[in-house]
């Protein structure tokens, strides 16, 4: 057994002995309900009101030191930390013995008088203590640093205990989602839930996860997006709907991608992509201000300014600005492929002009998009669910929002022509038959629904995880997902 594991085993043995000692004293080391009358932070911030008052707090012991007949400890709860002062002459022998058996990591309930020490630290003079849960493992002393990052994700519970800033990220994540709901509810949108297991995965070009339903003896797919079901609701007369929930894509893992992620999708009948632009910048800027207290957020050494209005740029113009290629004059597939290869890009021999445009944009333009920017006018070939632009039918009324080189939102005027939609599905199905596992499947039921009449509409999708990354200054998507997907631990 390695020395470190042997030391941990010995420490656990000592803690187990303390647990048994508590039981021999007739005490339960894994206690019962404890009624608090405050958290730690209100005591610290409102000391004038709490001084000499009795506080009942509960939490985890994070430090401990003894000085003869007295001792100190720090207790941590969801709100913060506060110092505890134990004095044997006040507690009595039995209660002081309980204090002596305390280990860092133990959960306890405390009752005592609030005061300030001679050194000026706000503290609780403990009058009684009960064990709520004995910690059988020592907490890690050094948890920060790159070498521990994988362990932090695997044992998020420990990460939350010892790294207060991590807890703050997830509290802020919850606040962000709450503010999104508040905004949309105030605007008259209805929150709905749609299937996560679908017979046909639709709404995005992505490789799905496959599962099997035994009773029905049929394959099902974890959804890659809720889009087509939400549009069915528009057809049914629910004119303004949204959903915040998980989607799943069987793709690689990186600092920006997790196979299981949270999406916000919004659909509004009788609107278009310009309405979605206005909604997007108003929604995100409001959330940033409410949660962050400022329109400026620091991320990876850059200050992002979410103040509106945001920059707007047409995709082909952005490509021309950063590469010199003018796809308004490059009109056929072969010329597009040759032009992109001249930039040093590897382009598939079967790639269409629209697909080449997207490849060039991702490779040469995205890296320049730092401040919030709307990029609009995507090719039809990469936008199978978006309405064509009237003046340039090879393009669509679609936009993406980029911030710090990351796509944060995707939106368009929804295609509501069932004939056009079926033709696009047919082309996508042909690509899928040719080996493209991310191409869209034919969805006859969705086409049938559209044939009853789908209102013109605007739709918007926002990646919640990426938005939280930006607002909290987190460099990896795994920093904002409580339990990210990881490789199995090597034995």
Task: Give a verbal description of the structure.
The protein has helices spanning 3-24, 40-45, 47-50, 88-91, 93-100, 149-154, 156-162, 164-186, 227-235, 273-292, 315-323, 333-342, 353-364, 418-433, 444-450, 464-472; strands at residues 54-67, 70-76, 81-87, 107-116, 122-133, 190-191, 197-198, 209-213, 218-222, 240-248, 260-269, 296-299, 302-305, 311-314, 373-376, 398-403, 406-413, 457-463. An 8-stranded mixed sheet has the order 6-10-11-18-17-16-15-14, sandwiched between helices. A hairpin with a 2-residue loop joins β12 and β13 (302-305). The chain has 2 domains: 3-133, Nucleic acid-binding proteins (OB fold (Dihydrolipoamide Acetyltransferase, E2P), Beta Barrel); 161-310 and 371-479, 2-Layer Sandwich (BirA Bifunctional Protein, domain 2), CATH 3.30.930. The mean pLDDT is 94. The longest helix is centred in the middle third of the chain and has 23 residues, at 164-186. It contains 16 helices and 18 strands. α7 (156-162) packs across α8, α11 crosses α13 and α14 runs antiparallel to α15 (444-450). Helices cover 35% and strands 24% of the residues. With 491 residues, it is α+β, with helices and mostly antiparallel strands.
């Amino acid at each position: 057994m390695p020395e470190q594991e042997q030391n941990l085993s010995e420490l656990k043995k000592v803690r187990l002995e303390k647990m048994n000692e508590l039981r021999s004293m007739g005490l339960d080391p894994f206690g019962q309900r404890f009624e608090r009358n405050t958290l730690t932070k209100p005591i610290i911030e409102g000391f004038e009101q709490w001084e000499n008052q009795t506080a009942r707090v509960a939490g985890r012991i994070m430090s401990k030191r003894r000085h003869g007949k007295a001792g100190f400890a720090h207790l941590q709860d969801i709100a913060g930390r506060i110092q505890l002062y134990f004095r044997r002459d006040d507690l009595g022998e039995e209660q002081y013995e309980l204090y002596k058996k305390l280990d860092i990591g133990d959960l306890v309930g405390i009752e005592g008088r609030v005061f300030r020490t001679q050194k000026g630290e706000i503290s609780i003079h403990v009058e009684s203590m009960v064990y709520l849960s004995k910690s059988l493992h020592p907490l890690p002393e050094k948890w920060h640093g790159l070498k521990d990052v994988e362990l932090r994700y695997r044992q998020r519970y420990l990460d939350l205990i010892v790294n207060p800033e991590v807890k703050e990220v997830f509290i802020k994540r919850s606040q962000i989602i709450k503010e999104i709901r508040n905004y949309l509810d105030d605007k008259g949108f209805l929150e709905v839930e749609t299937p996560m297991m679908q017979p046909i995965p639709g709404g995005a070009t992505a490789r799905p996860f496959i599962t099997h339903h035994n009773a029905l003896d049929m394959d099902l797919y974890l959804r890659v997006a809720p889009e087509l079901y939400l549009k069915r609701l528009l057809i049914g007369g629910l004119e303004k709907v949204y959903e915040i929930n998980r989607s799943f894509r069987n793709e690689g893992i990186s600092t920006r991608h997790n196979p299981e992620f949270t999406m916000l999708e919004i659909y509004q009948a009788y609107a278009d992509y310009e309405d979605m632009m206005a909604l997007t910048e108003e929604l995100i800027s409001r959330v940033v201000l409410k949660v962050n207290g400022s329109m400026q957020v620091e991320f990876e050494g850059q200050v992002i300014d979410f103040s509106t209005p945001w920059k707007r740029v047409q995709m082909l113009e952005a490509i021309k600005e950063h590469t010199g290629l003018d796809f308004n004059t490059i009109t056929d597939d072969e010329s597009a492929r040759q032009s992109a290869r001249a930039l040093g890009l590897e382009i598939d021999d079967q790639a269409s002009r629209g697909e080449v445009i997207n490849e060039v944009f991702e490779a040469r333009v995205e890296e320049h998009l730092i401040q919030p920017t709307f990029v609009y006018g995507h090719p039809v070939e990469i936008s199978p669910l978006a309405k064509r632009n009237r003046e340039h039918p090879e393009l669509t009324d679609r936009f993406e929002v980029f911030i710090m080189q990351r796509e944060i939102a995707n939106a368009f005027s929804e295609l509501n022509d069932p004939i056009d939609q079926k033709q696009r599905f047919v082309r996508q199905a042909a690509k899928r038959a040719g080996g493209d596992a991310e191409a869209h499947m034919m969805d006859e039921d969705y086409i049938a629904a559209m044939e009853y009449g789908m209102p013109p509409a605007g739709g918007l999708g926002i990646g919640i995880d990426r938005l939280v990354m930006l607002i909290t200054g987190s460099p990896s998507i795994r920093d904002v997902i409580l339990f990210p997907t990881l490789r199995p631990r090597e034995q």
